[in-house]
What does this fold into?
Amino acid sequence: MSAGGLAAARALLAGVRRLAVLTGAGMSAESGVPTFRDAQTGLWSRFDPVQLASPEGFRDDPPLVWRWYAWRRELVAGAQPNAGHRALARAAGSFDSLCIVTQNVDGLHQRAGSSDVIEIHGNILRSRCLDECGVRFERPQQLPSGEPPRCPGCGSWLRPDVVWFGEMLDPVQLRAAGEAVSGAQALLVIGTSGLVYPAAGLPLQARRAGVPVVVLNPQPTEIDSVADALVAGTAGEVLPALLARQADQPAT
It folds into this structure.
């Protein structure tokens, strides 16, 4: 952990009442949740990513894609929120607002106790109708693992409720994320490389709006140039220390 960076980040967050947080895959790494690429091991290593995560790939072979996501759902279901997730949840009560915008699809922020979470890439534990009739399932344990069921609303396939290659993000979720960032007094960016857009554009948007940016990541990222404070480290080791002072202060 970078002591100098931590001190600078603490100073920047001192007195902040409205905090926005952007999290990426690194946020859940300490919970044992593999990234999309890291999960392509063993049996799945011989498949093209687009074959496993695109509308075209799903329509070509629905059982294959469904089994891939059923396996990944099992990994996520077995993971537990780490110290970073829990630190964010504990700190929420010491801010007037603490909104988490996450690129992750694992639901670990909510399981840690965070309530104001915008999932811009969806949630792997949900399923929805392939043809957008509006049907959604919130509990994956009710769904079979071998083959996708048919939508009870229109008869189409059910698919994982995540954003696939070639798909646009939900405009409502994306607009909410932008509003959360622009309306905050500081943006804390955790565990993201800054390579995936439009999420990577949120720190730039914060910068244009005059919102200070803190970047927390073990390695350098593509958005370090817009940061007002850089902290080298993981979410689990840094966030409890970074947010402890805020959590000790009562909300006003």
The first strand starts at residue 18 and ends at 23. The chain has two domains: 3-32+81-121+169-247, 42-78+127-162. The CA atoms of residues 13 and 168 lie 33 Å apart.
